[in-house]
Amino acid sequence: MVSRQLIVGMPGSGKTTFIAALRHLLNANRVPTALVFDGFTDSERHLNRLEERWLACEEVDHTPAISNAWPILRLKDTATGNTASIAIPDISGEAFRQIAVTGRCRRSIYEAMVESSGLLLFTNADRATDNTMIVDEVRLAGELGGDEIGGGADDVGAPASFDPEKMPEETNLVELLQVMNRRPLSPSQRLLAVMVSAWDVVQATNVEPEEWVMMNRPMLWRYATSNPDLWTLRVYGVSAQGGKFPAQRVELQALEPSLRIKMIGPEATQHDLTVPIHWVLGALPVV
Fold this sequence. Notes:
Layout: E1 2-4, E2 6-9, H1 15-28, E3 35-37, H2 44-55, E4 68-69, E5 72-77, E6 83-87, E7 90-91, H3 93-102, H4 107-115, E8 118-124, H5 134-143, H6 169-179, E9 190-197, H7 209-216, H8 218-225, E10 231-239, H9 249-253, H10 257-260, E11 262-264, H11 274-281
Parallel strand pairs: 1-6, 2-8, 8-9, 9-10
Antiparallel strand pairs: 3-5, 4-7, 5-6, 10-11
């Protein structure tokens, strides 16, 4: 039996880096984890390439838009001994953005949405907050000498065409979650682990992950918490790289690779990336 669980997010949200770090953590077996490897699969070549770049403290390549890889991990619950084969997709952020903008997606992603009972939703803390209000846009337009949004006094051209790449990340994320419960999909309750990546940029503030999402992704927080019939929410802060490249490369290369990983959130231990996966899976069945 293979259980499909989604790792989703917009481009640059940290999904692929998380998968690379997870591959190393499970393979190295240097720190305690809630889930451990129970054998290898045919997807090792894809995962090995990601892990090699991660170990070298290099930026992990963003997944190409044409990629549709489903690395399969055979995992065992360290508490119960139960095992399962888990398919975790390395699907491009562009593919998820397309879903949010058009409401349409590839057959493979559609099937994953149908089959998935939980998902890890990534958002990058090292980005500006998507909190510009309409009134602010009007004020800025006025200060620039124009009476309408999008133009100044000397701007008589047509309005710019809609560009989905300029939509706020938070809007895309909420729309993606809404798409998962629209026809032809049947609304169902899922476990939602919001993963705030690049947590190293905010950890010194001592803010908790839930509080960070409330302040910096308020639309996402309000949507998830206002729909308990659809989503059961947990929030995690994760630094899968451990810091910024290239500025901190030498410092990070001096560390045991597994100790570069930082995790904070419900039931999390400091370096264990498997905790949110363990939670969204629930109790692993015996296979």
